[in-house]
Amino acid sequence: MPDPHGRIVLAGVGGQGVIFASRLLAEAALARGAQVMVSESHGMSQRGGSVAAHLILGDEPGPLIRRGTADVLIALDRLEGLRTLPVLRPGGAVFINAVEGFPEPVRARLHEMEVSACQVDADGEALRLGSPAIANVVLLGFVAAHTSLGLSLDDLKHAVSGLGPPPAVKFNLSALDEGARNAHDPDHGLCARLRPSTVALEQASR
Description:
This protein has 206 residues and is α/β, with parallel strands linked by helices. It has 8 helices and 7 strands, in the order βαβββαβαβααααβα. It has a 7-stranded mixed β-sheet, sandwiched between helices.
């Protein structure tokens, strides 16, 4: 697997765990020996305000990711995902926690830009697992099954094992596995242009 690299933007609202998700990705990349730069921005302080995190992995200029330069957008909220789409470069990828996909004009524009658009109902899967708060980790498992950023599902599992008490770690490991499985299930994970890695499915089955 290549070294961790790329420009990642995470977007959501307060209470969805955007900052935890960025920390998990950063810890996984650091464990692989990559350089990591992280910046965060918060809107309104209460739950429901916009929250974003920028991660630059590898030897990239930074620290902020400019409009049209992100390789990957990970959106924990559909509306925040729509609002943040301009950050993506042509040929990038967006992963969104949503039941309803993007509007047709948006899908057409993403197609023109050759942007891979993937969606999964991470909220629904987290509820099914018994903890709505782990939707962010479900989405990261889904992302890890697709991208070529150099971070595998096992990398995320290793990192999350050091974040939080044992009960929380157990839930988060289950969330990562479920997200990866959804990437291989056409009834749950929808993705245009990208195909999930069979390695991720094997890692989720262990």
